[in-house]
Design goal:
Strand content: 5-15%
Order of helices and strands: EEHHH
Shape: rod-shaped
Strand order of the largest sheet: 1-2
Number of strands: 2
Largest sheet: 2 strands, antiparallel
Helix content: 25-40%
Radius of gyration: 23 Å
Structural class: mainly alpha
Amino acid sequence: MATKSMTYATRRLMAGDSFETQRDRDARILIAIRKARPAGEEEVIAESEPAIGAGNHDLDSARAAYEAALGKKPFHAWDAATLREKIAASQQGA
């Protein structure tokens, strides 16, 4: 089963498409480079992994506080701790 869009044996495959390889060696290579997985193997998402977007409440509130305190939008790569430091530094300097 394809995990990414790719071309194999003149076929255009999309992620999730089932196909058979011509040789076992091809199957092992595609699995090794993570372009495919065995057809019977289900993708299991660990329950301990947080969903994308979960836990961003602290970051969102820190960004809102930064914008309110400094009057401009924060740099997108800053984390919540950095934003709090910048807010504290601006309040001490004012």
